[in-house]
Amino acid sequence: MDKERTRRFAELVYRDMAGAMAIGMGYLGLRTGLFEALADGRPSTAASLAERTGLVLRYVEEWCAGMAAAGWLDHDPAAGTFRLPEEHAFLLASKGTDHFMGGLFLAGPSLLALAPRVARAFQEGGGVPPEAFDADWIEAVDLMNGGAYRERLSSYWLARLPATKARLEAGGRALDLGCGVGEAAMALARAFPKAEILGVDPDGRAIERARRAAEEAGLFNLCFLEGTVDDLPEDPGFDLVLLLDCLHDMVAPEAALRAVRRRLAPEGVLFVMEPRAGDRIADNAHPLGVVYYGFSLFHCATQSLARGGPGLGTCLGPARTEALLREAGFATVEELPIKSFTNRFHAARP
User: Fold this and answer.
1) Distance, CA of 271 to CA of 336 (rounded, Å)
2) 109 and 101 in contact (C-beta within 8 Å)?
3) Distance from CA of residue 102 to its chain's centroid?
4) β partners of residue 242
């Protein structure tokens, strides 16, 4: 046995455990407002931070020390102060933007809490059904994707589909299938006030949140439906159908895609966003790939398998994505040249 290799692997395990603990501390920083309190970049002692936030000093002391040890906060030992650098605040104290990373801090604890149930599924089959995921997971998905939908969907992503964008500007119809809490559908409603926008999702909790948000935003060209694509009439057709980060979650993906194709207008387009995973394991041998495999085991694959689905998983990859679209009868499938560190985009036409 190579003892040096054993030592290096032990260091790797400790590093990964440290990452899990850092995400847990990130959860605390998000939920308690500590990141926001440090967003101005000024050095602060744990005592002054606790006083400013109204939090218990002993917990703030330990949190500051842990975040400094993880490299998330700068620490000045002589002054006894902690500081959130501007470059870190850009990612940690920027809720609502397309670069905020706080959704990951909610996702980690939420998903790992289900580890015992996933372990049972390894032995017994099935999986963890959608209703088992808590409110933190619903919020996490919104925080991970919502900013991008608000800031990029209509202005950047759909710019690659100019004819479709023109039809929506003139008063077309768009469907956000698997809409979650409705951020993408609301982004479309704001950008295309003459268009008719529909959001559909089987999760009643998410739909309830989406309806409240749309009402508060005063968006009246938009409605939300709890259900699936099969609950929609085939006519009139949609000029645009969005499948954002949900094709790999589906129980019957090919059947759903065929149903979508039947509900497209003659010049309609299906716009698919999937995680930027590669087709081979070697393509995903990096931190984001590990995150995606974890999301797959603890959410995407298991909730599909729980309902008798194929459990395609988060790392579906572009080749399988394109194959699914073609098998469902789409004649034209193209990967769109949209820059994104985390996602790939395809357009499919009947």
Assistant:
1) 9
2) no
3) 11
4) 176, 271
What tens digit of pLDDT does each residue of 80-123 get?
Answer: 999 999 999 999 999 999 999 999 999 999 999 999 999 999 99
CA distance 160 to 171: 19
Q: What is the pLDDT of residue 87?
A: 98
Residue 55's φ and ψ, nearest 5 degrees, are -95, 165
Reported as half-sphere exposure (CB side, CA atoms, 13 A), residue 2 has a value of 5
The answer to whether the peptide bond before residue 236 is cis (omega within 30 degrees of 0) is: yes
Dist CA 305 CA 248 (whole Å): 11
> How much of the chain exceeds pLDDT 70, in percent?
100
What was the pLDDT predicted at 218? 95
Identify the band that residue 62 occupies on the pLDDT scale cut at 50, 70 and 90.
Answer: very high
Query: pTM, whole model, 2 decimals?
Result: 0.94
- Total Cβ atoms within 10 A of residue 84: 25
> What is the helix (H) or strand (E) element at residue 202, kind and residue range?
none
The strand pairing partners of 244, in sequence order, are 273
Nearest to 277 by CA among 320, 303, 315: 315
Residue 27 to residue 89: CA distance in whole angstroms: 15
Question: How confident is the model over 76-82, as a mean pLDDT?
Answer: 98
- Token pair listed for 116: 């015992």
% of the chain at pLDDT higher than 90? 100
Q: Which of 240, 132, 148 is nearest to 187 (CA)?
A: 148
Structure tokens at 122: 């390894």
Q: What angle do CA 47, 50, 52 make, to 5 degrees?
A: 110
